[in-house]
Amino acid sequence: MPDLAKKIDAAAAAVRERCGRTPRVAVVTGTGLGGLAEAVAVEAEIPYLEIPHFPASTAPGHRGRLLLGELGGASVAVLDGRFHSYEGYTLAECTFPIRVVRALGAETLVLTNAAGGLNPAFELGDSMLIEDHIDLLPGNPLTGPNDDALGPRFPDMFEPYDRGLLALAREEAAAAGMTLREGVFVAVPGPNLETRAEYRMLRGFGADVVGMSTVPECIVAKHCGLKTLAFSVVTDLCDPDRLEPVDIAKIIATAERGGAALSALLQRVIPRL
Ligand code: HPA
User: Fold this and answer.
1) pTM above 0.90?
2) Is residue 106 classed exposed, middle or buried when 0-12, 13-18 and 19+ CB atoms within 10 A define those classes?
3) Which residues fall within 8 angstroms of residue 247, CB to CB, at 6 or more apart?
4) 77-126: per-residue pLDDT in tens?
5) Domain residue spans in the chain?
6) Is 186 close to ligand 1, i.e. is its CB under 6 Å away?
7) 209 lines ligand 1 (CB under 6 A)
8) Is the Cβ atom of 113 under 6 angstroms away from ligand 1?
């Protein structure tokens, strides 16, 4: 058995030993979005450090634990805290937990993140449905020998974010009377934020928000056959002509405020996935 498959099996077996639940939906909580975890009726909480081959979470605003339980009647696995390439992990390492929740039985993946707003119509704290993405990260989580048992060598990116799930999210936002923006996410490596010239370029590329995560997870989800739905919370405004210094504590506080509205939306959406 190839090395990656062995590692996935070992991690999934360690989780199953602690909790026999089969999650239907997996959720990754981004910066400031850990509040969603509080809505879960938790059956098991497993620190990442106790799962074989999981990296350790080092980013501020990110916890490092896997929760298994129920959210609005849906069986869920919550990856509470994610990994970024700027922490020093390879993209394959960053996305390993996605493969593990797939092995546990998840069929749908919900990704959340904090992002800078490039679209001038966006306001601080807005939630945005990610309809498509642009990958500017160096490297790719699928680099290396492909294990055909895990997924195809050349996964297509025809529909990175599932159309049916996008429609469902729009419908629930409308029913809740919530403003849900929609647009393109661009992934950059970080950890520094961008220069004015870079924000101008990213907007010119057609992106609406910019962040340092999510795209590798979406690629691996495509590879292993998970349907994906993803959201950003706008935590800073990236208007090159009115740029202000950003303060990470402020970004996290805005993510927490905006994350509360997104969390309420997810509590309506997830039971329907
Ligand atoms: N740039 C990149 N990543 C981010 C930003 C940003 O402005 N805000 C939050 N995450």
Assistant:
1) yes
2) buried
3) none
4) 999 999 999 999 999 999 999 999 999 999 999 999 999 999 999 999 99
5) 2-272
6) no
7) no
8) no
